[in-house]
Amino acid sequence: MEFKIPVTKEGLTKAILMVLNFKLNLTSHEIDVLSIMINHKIDIIDTSTRELLRKIMDKNKFDINNYIKQLKGKKIILVEDKLLYLNPAITKLVDNDEFNFKFITE
Hints:
The protein is mainly alpha-helical. It is built from 6 helices and 3 strands, in the order αααβααββα. Helix 1 crosses helix 3.
């Protein structure tokens, strides 16, 4: 069975994350932050990228820092030597334009 979901180019990343959210367990705000990061090719989270997220989302620094902390806890954002970066597996997931799901009952 094929079920087509029409989306705009700008909404594609968010749509993919929403479909995959049964495994990612993200809140709607976390999906928004993550889709903005992916759409703007933000791989490294530093002061300038946090500022960009604040401007785009019209949020204060505390909100953005809380979203980043939550995404770190869910292994969406990884930390290595005090460097925060987006999990490459997430980027690979949303790089596709088409997905096929196969549901297997246990």
